[in-house]
Amino acid sequence: MSVTVSPSVAVGPTRSAAWRRLLRSRAGLIGVVLVAVVAGAAVAALLGLTPYDPVAQHPSDRLQGPSGRYWFGTDQFGRDVFSRSLAGVGNSLRVALVAVAISALVGTAAGVCAGFFGGRVRGPVLAVTNVLFAFPPLLLALTLAVTFTRSWLTIAVAIAIVYVPIFVRVSRGPVLSLRETDFIKAARVLGIPTWRILLRHLLPNIAAIVIVQVTLSLSWAVLTEAALSFLGLGSPPPTPSLGSMVFDAKILAGTAWWNLAAPGAVIVLFVVGLNLLGDGLRDALDPKNGRNS
Amino acid sequence: MKLPSTLRAAVIRCVAAGAAVALVATGCSSGGGSSDRGATGGTLVVGYTVDPNTLDPWKATQFQAVHLLEQMYGTLTQLDADLNVVPGLAEKWQYSDDNTTLTLTLRQGVTFHDGKPFSSADVKSSIERIQKPETAAVAAATLKSVKSVEAPDPQTAVLRLAAPDAGLLTGLATTNLAMISKDDTPESIGRKPNGTGAFTFGSRTAGQSVTLTANGDHWGGKPTVDGLEFRIIPDETSVVAGLQSGNVHFATVDDPLVARSAEGSGLKVTKTPSLSYHVLQFNARKAPLNNRDVRLAISCAIDRKQVLDTAAMGEGEVVGPVTSPAYKSDPNARPCPTRDLAKAKSLLAGAGFAGGVTIPTIVSQGQYATSVNEAQNLQAQLKEAGITLDLQTLESGAYVDKWIAADFTAAVALNGGRPDPDGMYGRYFTSTGNLNKVAGYSSPELDKLFAEGRATTDVAKRKEVYTRVSRHLEDNAVWVWLFASYGYTVTTQGVGGFTAMPNGSLKNLRQVSLQ
Amino acid sequence: MRAIARHPLARRLVETVLTLFGVAVLVFVTLRAIPGDEITATLGTEAAGLSEAQRKSLRAYYGLDEPLALQFFSWLGNVVTGNLGYSRRAGTSVLELTAAALPVTMELAILSVIIGLLIGVPLAMLSASRPNGARDGFGQVVGLAALSVPNFLLGAALLTVISRYAHYNPNAAAFAPLAENPLLNLQQMLFPALVLGFGLAAPIMRTARSSLLEVQTQDFVRTARGKGVAPLRLRVRHVLHNALNPIVTMTGIQFGYLLGGAVVVEQIFSVPGLGRQVLAGIQQKEYAVVQSTVLVIAATFVLVNLLTDVLYRVIDPRVRTV
User: Is A147 part of the contact surface with chain C (CB cutoff 8 Å)?
Assistant: First the structure.
């Protein structure tokens, strides 16, 4: 994933200009819509606004196809697949958001410090980053997931640890070049406290990159959580997670296929939406307008 | 312009599948179909989802390891389809008058796979080594009553018992008490198996397959098939896929949904009631469960059929403590045969918990299909009586650690059953039993009853004793016994002649025919 | 010391060794933190019935009674001399297991990457040929959607449907190593590689698209077009050739991830690769198997990165002087 940023600006695109540019690109627009729809569904589920209770069973209506009563059909316990999919999105989103929030905070902080201070901070940070990068990511998440009491929070932490290195790398690069600009040098000479330099001058300039990386990492986090659930190691039942729904339903692929298609479609929509949003944001926030999209 | 993504995905899948099939449809016969044909003969491919984790019969507890090893190793006694004791390597036996000496007459002409003859010296050496702590044999406690073994002549083995032990003969019919040659060690047979069973060890590719060959010199006659291949296919759905394409011939399945799906696709599915029981275990040594009324309240507040229906789609039957066919408990012989919320609430109030009570409960995830659904349903049912089950879902390793240490107040568990009630519960509910810590309960009355059950071989008397044991366990709500589920055997249409057994044994594979 | 610090290759090597040591420590520590050990993994709840003497004997048998530091350093010392440990479950050395699994994973990864490139690059070229037009939108969204179906979903559905209705399932036959039975082996690799390749195609396509777009607007391309170079030749010879760098980097990274990350697909299609080996080791709590295999995967990943960098320099002469 190559990300470029012009190091020479002290002023980025204004927020409203960026927003307009995002919405103007077709792909970006679709991305925003998809993400909004999925996020809305997740919120609805978390507020309990689903047609049926996601864990309630209707034994007389087992394995029914999509109908007026059950929009996505029912599973082997007679549970409404649509409600479960909504709840699953809520669960996956919760895990992904927490995971990415943690990794973004920790990773960006580490990356900025390593980039700005260099010297003794740089060595350990890079060493840890390299180690985490070299460790096969899914296996790392897997190993961490089995270590703690199974809950959505520990899964989120496990995924967060796996994705910290990418934020370190993504934020360190621009800081390295920004550090050498006249603007920053002047600020240091003038005696402005370091924390203020970091917070008010450096961070806004790398904000664009970090935001883009956040959207990309969100989609990876959703997929990783789904993969973990599929291996039976994700957030524990009964709250359905998209991955565990796929795991339970894979035997039904040739028969009650809607059990598989619903969570699968939701995952796809969400991942595609996040990716398009990320691309769109990258283009919209990039002041260097050499691109055609 | 934009197709719905599911349709697009489906189209791509179909195109890919079509392309793949077209590409290889020309003359590639190795992809599908079974190997070798014929009414007798052929290699039966058995689908396993996990690699057997040991080849040492004395240490094997994993389902896959046990049922692989029982093809290669012999035991002194065996069980028939109704789990009654029948001769094995011992042809006949005789108790002394006071039931403290058991004389076994061994079969003649039995040899190990390496050609060495089987004799009483092997019996003596096997039993003595199993009893040594260094061997760490898991069934050592079954031989607790055996003081010494003598081998007066090659065909006779004499077991001297410290006290009468009526369950001993049944207990000997387990692969964990297999007879191995006195010249072999658990280490050596762990690498190269050598037993007296119907199949000899062929080859093994770790993580992929284990191949066995029919033993022409087996005392029970040569198996109908030429060999067995236990093939590791990690995903249960993929095993069913293998059965549907004919690459795999035989598999056992626990998940009722998988069994149902398999049935719908033209495979043969048979279900057998299992000895294993689903239970809500209590640790009666921990508050608030040390109060009998609290336990009884929980027992009365649960409709077991509802748990069975919601967790396992009704595939199973409600049971009492003892599940072995000959001594089966009556599930209605309990204080609340049907759910009685009023009684539960009054019991709680009487115990001083009118405002409700919270019970921390551990549940495993991933060990078997229904654990969490059961826990969910129990929680929902008990809530209506003011009892809160505080569920802690644990991954397998963490759950086993806690269970072993009895570090729980309540636990949703699936425990294995045994054909003899003394073998099944003696180790749990007698105060000197090696699992008493986990059972969380003991009483002088139970100790007395178990001793009585061991002391006599009269079946009618023993039945009466264990009925009283069941009654005691239910009246004191020691645990809440829920249900026993089914074990499913799934085979292709060409497989015939297999008899499933309630203890899950696959030893009848030697009689299977393959077409 | 300073001489080493200045020479880029030497510095790279030192970094690599340190990184691998870090991976070793990380995997050792996380494994020990997982509840349960090989005894409870092997015996399950029956381990509750063990007497104290039996338990002690088992701990010695499985090597669990040594102090942790000793366990770590004796394992690491053995690894350096080529002894990756022993698996009691499998009855063979970890080296043998890995030697059998590594080529399988490599083959799967290579096939998947090829498929990913074959799908992703042409799609990207299609998209980039008319940016922001109908083709671009189509290529982006539809391509992304179809290629973003999670690989486990695609794999499970594919396997179940084809086995049930076409009765075709080469993966349920005993696994055939490439050297022994190439025809069956390729059939067994077909579906898993397809599934994984689909998943790779999305990031490859997106990287390729943005890289192609960037190159397309550059002067030399406009010059070539003005000179009348045919469109297809233009796209391949001039644009694609120069847009290769990010594509190569992305492919290298994805290949590296496949080494351990194909575990789910390996499970579904019963491909005996490295990912499955690690998973089985974790389930059975075989520390040596997991530790050594993870180390091998990490070392291979680092090696692949190194090779990608070298390839980078070979393709793009501009980078060579850096």
Answer: yes
Question: Quick one: B277-485 is in which CATH superfamily?
Answer: Dipeptide-binding Protein; Domain 3 (3.10.105.10)
| C-alpha dihedral sign at A241, B277, B174, B73 | negative
Is the per-residue pLDDT at A3 higher than 60? Answer: no
The gap from C-alpha B73 to its chain's centroid, in whole angstroms, comes to 18
**pLDDT value of residue A15:** 64
pLDDT of residue B33: 41
CB contact under 8 A, A250 and C18: no
Residues of chain B in Cβ contact (below 8 Å) with chain A? 4-6, 9, 235-237, 240, 255, 257-258, 260-261, 264-265, 309-310, 313, 365-366, 372-373, 376, 392-395, 397-398
Residue with tokens 């001489």: C3
The neighbours of chain C, by the rule of 3 or more Cβ pairs under 8 Å, are A, B
Give burial (CB, 10 Å; 0-12/13-18/19+) of C215: buried
Please tell me the pTM assigned to this model.
0.88
Cα-based distances in Å from C260 to A142, C25, C48, C109, C278: 11, 18, 35, 10, 8
- ipTM score above 0.90: no
In degrees and rounded to multiples of 5, residue C136 shows phi and psi of: -65, -50
Cβ distance C54 to B140 less than 8 Å, yes or no, reads yes
* Contact yes or no for A171/A107 (Cβ under 8 A): yes
Of A150, A251, A269, Cβ closest to residue B258: A251
Please answer yes or no on whether B21 and C162 come within 8 Å at the CB atom: yes
CATH topology of domain B29-70+197-267+492-514: D-Maltodextrin-Binding Protein; domain 2 (3.40.190)
Nearest by CB to C142, from B8, B50, B404: name it: B8
Lowest mean pLDDT among A33-47, B47-61, B230-244, C298-312: C298-312
> A125-157 as b/e, with b when 16 or more CB fall inside 10 Å?
bbebbbbbbbbbbbbbbbbbbbbbebebebbbb
- Calpha distance B75→B180 (Å, rounded): 9
* Angle (CA) C52 C53 C56, round 5°: 85
Which of A81-95, B136-150, C304-318: highest mean pLDDT?
A: B136-150
Which residue shows structure tokens 């992304």? C144
End-to-end CA distance of chain A: 17
pLDDT of residue B34: 43
Distance from CA of C255 to the nearest CA of B (A): 22
Is residue B281 pLDDT above 90, yes or no? yes
Cα separation of C230 and C249, whole Å? Answer: 29
pLDDT digits (tens, 9 = 90+) for A148-175: 777 788 889 989 998 898 899 888 888 8
Give the residue extent of every domain in chain B: 29-70+197-267+492-514, 77-188, 277-485
A288 CB-near residues (< 8 Å, 6+ apart): A4, A6
Give the CATH architecture of domain B77-188: Alpha-Beta Complex (3.90)
How sure is the predictor about C237, in pLDDT bands with cuts at 50, 70 and 90? low
Whether chain C has a CB inside 8 Å of the CB on A3: the answer is no
Chains touching A (at least 3 CB pairs under 8 A) are B, C
B24, C187 in Cβ contact below 8 A?
yes
Regarding predicted confidence, which is higher, C236 or B39?
Answer: C236
The pLDDT, as a whole number, for residue A90 is 86
What mean pLDDT is predicted for residues B165-187?
A: 95
Across the range C175-193, mean pLDDT stands at 93
* pLDDT grade for C23, boundaries at 50, 70 and 90: very high
